[in-house]
Amino acid sequence: MFVRSKFFIFIPFLILSCGGEKTDSRANLLLLGRIILNDQILVSGVAKGPGTLANAKVEVLRAPSSGGCVTSAGKPNGIVLSSTTTDKDGKYSLRYPRQGASVCVVVTPGNGTTMAISYAPTKPITWKGNINVNALFTEPGVSARTTRRGSVSTTPKTVNVSPFTRMASGRASALTQGVNRKLEQKSFFRNLFFKGNSRNTSDISSGARDVQNSLFTRVGMPNGLEEFNPDNTQFKLREGGILLKADNLSGGARGEINPETLEKLINFMEDDFSDGRFDGKRAPTTGTTPESIPSTELTAVGLDTAKADNFLKGEFLNAIKEFAIEDPSISDNAWRAANFCDEEGSVSCEVGDSTAKVYVFPEDGSVDNPTYPFAYIEFAEEMDNKTLTAQTADGTCSGTIQMSTNNFSSCIGFPLIDGSQAYTFDNVDPYYVMLFGTSNLPLNTTVKIRVLNTVKKLDGDLLLTSNFTSNGFTTFANRFSVLSTDNQFVLDKDLGILWRRCVIGRSGATCTGTSTQLQFCDTQDNDCNGGFDEGELDGELGVSTLFNACDALNSNPAGGLGGYTDWQVPHFFDATSFKQFKIESGSFATVFPNTGNFWTRNSFDLEGASYFNSGTNSIDYSIKDNLHFAYCVTYSYSP
Q: What is the biggest distance separating any 2 CA atoms in the chain, rounded to whole angstroms?
């Protein structure tokens, strides 16, 4: 069996200098690319539910930061960017403005939506209720062309929406939330996450790949699950399995499928597969251990615990056999080619090249990646973590896991924490390691990851016959940009954070006026930051002119500055981004004119908090009742 070991490299860069400087950056899952107003994505495909869906409503929306593409009621979960209706053959086509983020296609019942049943062509059923199918995908790169109206980019993307892409979407959401929960279990990691769209494309890829591994074992999908041809026999067999299972549960004449029964079956399959297997369990809502699906939900789809644990090779395969007999377009013996992988001792689950042992994210060739990258390495086997090592300082490459910005002439270091290697290894699926680096990645730079062939599997055997080296991903070329006609906001495209361009007291395109000096707290204690040393400014107790200054922007002007109502003091991770931009960009003074020392919202200990020292370009320590300037940020930016 193909057992996934997941190896993460987070690079949030935490350093305390002897002078008290604290430099850090946020490991973020947000890949918010540039918003190009005249750049359009052309999405087209076929909607299957699992039969062909005619006259169904199709909506494209920006993927939410948490949760799936749909709400618990089966409705689109987010702001709709574009919509259309499928034709009689289930086909759709629409354009929407590029988002620079992950995107959902959601198909729900429209006015008179019907679903064709291939083995009962005269009996299309009414597709209704809360039923839906959806797909979560990553936008393709820009492909520009010139028209009489000027430079326009229309990039095509095929997204065939089906119950299988819905399962992949649900699995991706579970992976994202599961990783967040693992991090949140440790107080050190808690602040590495922030408000915003934290979904990352590795989870999207992993969700689709898990569905391919399990349901489409040994079926090549070179362009991915969402682009797989729905007329392919292997797809039609699995589609037919869902139809026949729902048909048998409905209890009527052949082909008279009850829509509510079909909805329960598809809901069950998405829920059961959220933990990556059909095993009668689902991804946990708390903690990291999969939860058993209640017996009442299993009974509703004709299962018990034993049948659910062997769903693919039992109930589902039997339904596929029936379908192959019922559908005249399918050979009676076609079901024999349907291989599944969902339990120990089953056939190999590898997709594509069976020799592939390592997968990395950010993906090779991808651009506009964060300078605080979330790098992900997935192995084909459980790993012996004692063989996974990394160097402790920038310099000559060493260790079995390496990251480099100069083709391994030198490598990025990972410092020791509490005297031991700075990584956390988890030997419970998903298997992963997290490493913490020493400095920010530079802008517009290609970054490569290398795994040496000396790493070993848990059984002691070598994983690789030769070193694995990725082709590399590229960081943002231009990270900060001034927005709006009155030039009062700056967008950090890396983190998706919107800054008020001027410190409090100044305004306008050149930030004129007098900067206001503010206190983190009027006392040298923890009253203003939640009652504990490393807390964040909260405004609950104590008097903080700093907190009050940013909080005032949420109601003045009415409706909040720029229409946002979560203005707050920046985190020191955000200030580190500011620092990097100030050091590396020649345009800093134009983007942030008349700046100076400013507070972050992070307390350091009982008496002091962190602030950005403009003179030394560092995050330093200051007594809480000292006076510094204030920037304000919002995490709710939406183009």
A: 81
Q: Give the burial class of 128: count Cβ atoms within 10 A of its Cβ; 0-12 exposed, 13-18 middle, 19 or more buried.
A: middle
Write down the residue that tokens 């990851």 correspond to. Answer: 449
* 452 neighbors 400 (Cβ within 8 angstroms): yes
- List, in sequence order, every beta strand (DSSP E) within 313-398: 358-361, 374-379
Using CA of residue 627, residue 628, residue 629, residue 631, what is the dihedral sign?
negative
Using alpha carbons only, how large is the chain's radius of gyration in Å?
A: 26
- Residue bearing tokens 């919107």: 498
CA-to-CA distance for 143 and 444, rounded, in angstroms? 19
191 contacts: CB under 8 Å, gap ≥ 6: 26, 536, 571, 573, 602
Tokens 């990025």 locate to 412
The token pair at 234 is 């292997």
Q: What is the pLDDT of residues 257-273, one digit of tens each?
A: 999 999 999 999 999 99
Distance CA 51, CA 113 (A): 12
Q: Which two three-digit tokens encode residue 503?
A: 């410190």
Query: Nearest-5° angle of CA 288, CA 374, CA 618?
Result: 115
The alpha carbon of 166 is separated from its chain's Cα centroid by a whole number of angstroms, namely 16
Measured CA to CA, the distance from residue 284 to residue 174 in angstroms comes to: 8
Token pair listed for 96:
């929407």
pLDDT recorded at residue 481 = 86
Q: Between residues 423 and 312, which one has the greater pLDDT?
A: 312
Q: Measure the CA–CA gap between 65 and 69, rounded to whole angstroms.
A: 10
DSSP three-state, residue 20: coil
How many Å apart are CA 413 and CA 398, to the nearest integer? 9
Average predicted confidence (pLDDT) for the chain: 80
pTM value is: 0.54
Q: How far is CA 184 from CA 114, 156, 191, 236, in A?
A: 44, 38, 8, 42
Sign of the Cα torsion 359, 360, 365, 368 reads: positive
Q: How far is CA 145 from CA 40, 139, 152, 366, in A?
A: 11, 17, 6, 20
Cα dist. 553→441, 484, 496, 633, 635 in Å?
Answer: 33, 17, 19, 10, 14
Please choose, from the candidates 71, 62, 344, 363, the residue with its C-alpha nearest in 3D space to the C-alpha of residue 206: 363
Written as six digits, the tokens of 486 are 């009155």
Using CB atoms within 10 A of its CB, is residue 18 exposed (0-12), middle (13-18) or buried (19+)?
exposed
The distance of Cα 41 from the centroid of its chain, to the nearest Å, equals: 20
Give the per-residue SS3 of 399-447. Answer: ECEEEECCCCCCECCCCEECCEECEEEECCCCEEEEECCCCCCCCCCEE
| Cα(206)–Cα(210) distance, integer angstroms | 6
What integer pLDDT is reported at residue 201 of this predicted model? 52
**Structure tokens given for 448:** 């490569």
Strand pairing class (401-404; 446-451): antiparallel
**Residue 340 near residue 215 (C-beta atoms within 8 A):** yes
